[in-house]
Design brief:
Elements (H helix, E strand, L loop, with lengths): L4 H12 L8 E12 L2 H8 L3 E6 L7 H7 L2 E4 L9 H12 L11 H4 L17 E2 L2 E2 L9 H19 L1 H18 L2 H12 L3 E7 L2 E6 L5 E5 L6 H12 L8
Parallel strand pairs: 1-2, 1-3
Antiparallel strand pairs: 4-5, 6-7, 7-8
Helix pairs in contact: 1-3, 2-4, 6-7, 7-8
């Protein structure tokens, strides 16, 4: 059984007619043939004013109406379900929690799994001892700096063990940050972007990097020059641009 083009078109068109023309909108067709849904995609979708989820059923939908209405083809994994309703619910939940005001704690959306290509660190509650297992001493110390260090270490360990694909991305960005730190003055924006977990690696060529801010969509490019004198390099960059540097010494 196949869903005909006209009823699907009429349904999508009726929803679109209710959306103000100045609103951005996407029509997402939920299909195992689409790009696999991930956190970056959820973040991109959360910035849209309106999202319409088109859920196939049976053998799918007439290709002609898909070509005319759909903007994105998305899957939640390499398996087949009887319809797109459950995958749509999964995506709606992941996307909506990134919309400002949805979560009571806005910070939680930035500190959970996949932030900065790391899985979330282990969490503990009361009592301190349960079934012979204790909460790690560092978490009871009250020393926030040590707690943060422990959380980062555990996130790295867990990601390396459970998601080596994510760990590889994390390691590449960490190596890039080390190189950027050799010329910190020129690359402070890129360094902070990596620290905040907002960097997406686009291209990497030895000492040349192209990163994208996953929140703003802005691209950042840097090439580490062969010099150990950062102040000299900073001055050279201004001279090349025609900007005069005043000497206040």
């Amino acid at each position: 059984m196949l869903m005909q083009a006209q009823p699907v078109f009429d349904a999508v068109d009726s929803v679109l007619s209710l959306i103000p023309e100045n609103h951005s909108r996407r029509v997402i067709y939920v299909t195992p043939q689409g790009s696999v849904f991930n956190q970056k995609m959820a973040r991109d979708f959360s910035k849209e004013d309106e999202l319409i989820f088109l859920c196939g059923h049976y053998e799918g939908i007439d290709e002609r109406v898909l070509e005319e209405t759909v903007t994105d083809y998305v899957s939640i994994g390499d398996y087949v379900l009887t319809g797109g309703e459950l995958p749509a619910m999964v995506m709606i939940d992941a996307i909506s929690r990134l919309v400002p005001g949805v979560l009571n704690n806005e910070v939680s959306a930035e500190t959970e799994s996949f932030h900065g290509n790391l899985l979330e660190y282990p969490q503990y509650s009361r009592p301190r001892e349960w079934h012979g297992k204790e909460v790690p001493d560092v978490l009871m110390s009250g020393n926030q700096k040590k707690i943060n260090q422990w959380r980062l270490l555990k996130s790295i360990e867990r990601t390396k063990l459970r998601r080596p694909d994510l760990y590889e991305k994390y390691e590449k960005l960490s190596n890039i940050k080390e190189k950027l730190l050799t010329q910190k003055l020129l690359n402070i924006d890129m360094i902070e972007m990596i620290n905040r977990g907002e960097a997406w690696l686009v291209k990497l060529y030895d000492k040349e990097f192209l990163l994208k801010n996953i929140n703003t969509g802005i691209y950042y490019h840097s090439q580490i020059a062969e010099t150990e004198n950062e102040s000299e390099l900073f001055e050279m960059s201004f001279e090349e641009s025609g900007i005069q540097i005043a000497d206040f010494s």
